[in-house]
Predict the 3D structure of the following.
Amino acid sequence: MQEKHNVIMENRSSLKISGVNDIDKFSDTTIVLSTVMGELVIKGEDLHVTTLEAQTGDFLMTGTINSMSYSKNSVMDGPFKKIFR
C-alpha cells in the first residue's frame, strides 16, 4: 500500500503536504520535494520551509505560491546524480 499524499494550500500563502520523503532543493523562489507521488516543484516568492518531519513525511511552508507541478524524474537524475551519490 502506498503512503498517503495530501496537499493543502491556504490562500496561496501556506502549504501543508504529507508523503514527503526529502527536500531536494530550496531557495526563496523554488522548492523541489521528493514525494511518494514523484517530484513536486513549487515556485513562488519569499518561500520558506517551516517544517519537515522526517518520520511522518509532513511538510509545511509559507510564501507566495505561484505554481506547483509534478514530475516523474528528479532534478538529481542525469549527470549530477553520479556526482552527488
The chain has one helix and six strands.
